[in-house]
Amino acid sequence: MDTMDPLDLRAPDAPTTAKPPPPAWLTHALCVLWPAFLMAAVLEMLVFAWIDPAGLLGHHGTGQPGEAIAVHSLAFLLFWATIALAIGLSHWLSDRTGDRAPAVGTRSAT
User: Fold this and answer.
1) Does residue 22 contact residue 105 with C-beta atoms inside 8 Å?
2) Where is this region: Disordered (predicted)?
3) Whether pLDDT at 36 is above 90
4) Residues 6+ apart with CB under 8 A from 83
5) 104 contacts 27 by C-beta, under 8 angstroms
6) Rounded CA Rg of the chain
7) Residue-wise burial string across 65-91, b where 16 or more C-beta atoms lie within 10 A, e elsewhere
8) CA–CA separation, 80 and 84 (whole Å)
9) Neighbour count for residue 47 (Cβ, 10 Å)
10) What is the pLDDT of residue 67?
11) Hey, where are the domains in the chain?
12) Mean pLDDT of the residues in the chain
């Protein structure tokens, strides 16, 4: 007699197929972009803790209200792109040496 597991919440006729792993390019992109995003946020906080965006524009409080936000946004994007480029280059070079473990979701050849 076939007994059902009380903890199995799937329908009795549901297929038991495994979800395919994400594409390798997506895994590599996320390994580069997410740490770059976090470090750009940290760098943004450190830089603008000492630098006033209005001082960069030469207005010292007399400029438009959105100018400071624009400076913060552009600086963050510049920081993110620069850090992502550095991490991406490092990731690409380490991948070429063959020293890295296989990407997430892939199986080794052994």
Assistant:
1) yes
2) 1-23
3) yes
4) 35, 36, 39, 40, 43
5) yes
6) 24
7) eeebeebeeebbeebbeebbeebbeeb
8) 6
9) 13
10) 80
11) 24-54+65-96
12) 79
